[in-house]
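Structure tokens
________________
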Amino acid sequence: MGARVLGLLATACSHHAVTPRAAIVPRDVPVPESIVACGTKVPLPLGTPVLSSTLVGDDLARGSCVRGTAPECVFMLDVPARSDVRLSLESADFDGALVLADAERVSELLCVDDSPTGDTHHARIETTLEAGRYAVMVEGANGEAGQFALFAEVDPLPAPAQACAQATPLSAGASLRGSTRSAPNQFGATCSGGAEGPDRVHVFTLREPTRVRIWQQGEHDGTLYLRSRCEDPGSEIMCRADAGPGFSALLTAELAAGSYYVFTDSFARSQSGDYVLSMEQALPPLNATVSASCTAANAAPLVPGEYEIDTLYAPSVMAGNCGGERAPERLFHLSLKEETTIQVELLEAEFDAVIYLRVECEDERSEISCARAPRAELSAESEVAAQPFIATIGPGEYTLGIDGQFENQMGATRLRVTSLPLSLARPAR
């Protein structure tokens, strides 16, 4: 491949069925004698380029990224154990596409054309494969055919148990520095497209039920996820992708005593780099009651303005009819002397919230409004607020609740409250 073979790029495509088709490319073009034959019985060597041509191949299938109709050259790739696999195609005299499929060529795993984007003479695949046999196909992306060089590398991955046993301890109140550069892709998650990037694993232990807030600041689009059992994807508790400016990611959870595993990952293999991981812990308030929460709210009436609040330390004793069960909340007292329109905004919230309004703090039946306020994407350029809560209410005493929408939804936000008495909003006569 020589100097023309560039660094491999990560590629993620969905599974597709390989589409059968008929051959239409003429086969009377001469093929040099140095060309290696291909076919379903020809193994793809590792670590050395293979020179071949689609003109000696079959015309039986078409990859999902192929736009024309042309023959493909097939090689069989044997993966001895779960491995990182890198495939690189150089097609000097035609626009080649690279397809990875199961051994029978029934299910397509990946199809790549023009990688880097706009480069019609190169295609690259980098992925993780389980042990087994796979078909690697080279096709003309636009119905062309010609010579190519194909290069394959297979690097067996260590067993997940080994990575779990070597997990880096994470402590509350301390910042941990790490890097995913050159790290393998050993684990996956339910968000970020399965989290196919290189990953690192960390571990912490709780001696009693505790709330945790874990955040990451890095130099790439990061993903954080939390498991109760390191090797078991089904034990995932939460998965969060980028949560704000500067490539940050954040997750919060209320956890029972035990050991937990935090994974720093990313959407794709091209996303890796240095990161700083931090954790904060808080014990849930003991013996919290609705009456005590209402008494605390009444002691400090809410007036228009901005407030820094953090529900990580708040009790979880109330909920609105649109959400809030098993999530901590902050309560505020409103005292209005006349009919007023109030607007409540949550700025740069760390959690998906619900906002509700009651006439009687301790009586859930007195709720007059409840609205969901999912967190907005944070921006480095300007503050971003969730959908504002707006209500027009008469004179009287009220309780305003700021709650997490679901379990484990908690954290910090800026609360902005504005009000306008209707007597001022009406035009003078």
